[in-house]
Amino acid sequence: xxxxxxxAACGLVAVGLLIGAxxxxxxxxxxxxxxxxxLPRLQEQIARDTQRRAELEEENQGVLRRVDQKxxxxxxxxxxxxxxxxxxxxxxxxxxxxxxxxxYLRNLCSGGSDEERLCRQVIGWVEGEGSGGDRAETxxxxxxxxxxxxxxxxxxxGICLPEPR
Length: 165
Prior knowledge:
The protein is an all-alpha fold. The protein contains 7 helices and no strands. The radius of gyration is 31 Å and the shape is rod-shaped.
């Protein structure tokens, strides 16, 4: 018998002894990660985790789309191309794409109505979006929006957001 044959035989004996020991002590196999009886359960867990990852990725993409839209609308307000109530109406449309958004809005923004809260949300986003640019201009725009909101709150008509187009 050659030395290669002896090594192969010894290896086979060692593997056989290991398999025998693991079959009598399954907890050893589990501790080593060699418990094949767990394979179907692990495959099911991988499938569930893969599905959950896809769901989370889809949700993440939705959040990013909503953030992009709110940033774009805030820049439009800063540039004077969109009024406070027009932006608030757009924010309402964006928020309704995610049902929990209005609940979060009610918890985070003060106000006597959802329309007022949406206006306050717009003002906050405009302030945040403008913080990287001309701070004096951002401050002027935010002050103008605050004054516009106060005027709307004092008016008998209240805050009337236009319907989405």
